[in-house]
Amino acid sequence: MIWWWTQVRKKELKFTIVDFIIVLFCFAGACFSGTAFWGEYNNTLVKLNEDPVGTIVFKKRVAQRKFIDRNVWDRLNHASSVYNGDTIRTIE
Predict the structure, then answer these.
(1) For 31-90, how does the pLDDT look when each residue is reduced to its tens digit (9 = 90+)?
(2) Is 63 helix (H, G, I), strand (E, B) or coil?
């Protein structure tokens, strides 16, 4: 291991344009993944093919909704629509 490190230190390492392109590509991929994660994390669930049966007009602290066909809990905002078959949970 020490022999390898001394051989590497003796060589002059150059940063070429190919290295720059690879680093830029990896950085762009990390930015794209972070943006996609942020958008998915802050996405609210809506149903476009059904009419709402009510709205949440006031909430204290946190209220969450789960659609009947999904297993994901969605945080409700003030004046969020509620659909038939939704499961609503709140904290004390």
Answers:
(1) 999 999 988 777 766 676 778 888 877 667 778 888 777 788 888 877 888 888 888 888
(2) strand
What stretches of the chain show up as alpha helix (H) in DSSP? 2-10, 17-41
- The pair of three-digit structure tokens given for residue 28, joined into one six-digit string: 């762009």
Question: pTM of the prediction?
Answer: 0.49
Residue owning tokens 């490190």 = 5
Give the integer Cα–Cα distance in Å for 22 and 32: 15
In the chain, where are the structural domains located?
13-43, 47-92
Q: Residue 44 belongs to what H/E stretch? A: none
- For residues 74 and 44, the answer to whether their CB atoms sit within 8 Å is yes
- Identify which of 73, 76, 51 has the alpha carbon closest to the alpha carbon of residue 63: 76
- Give the bridge partners for 81, in sequence order: 55
For residue 84, what are its two tokens? 């038939």
Single-letter residue type at 22: I
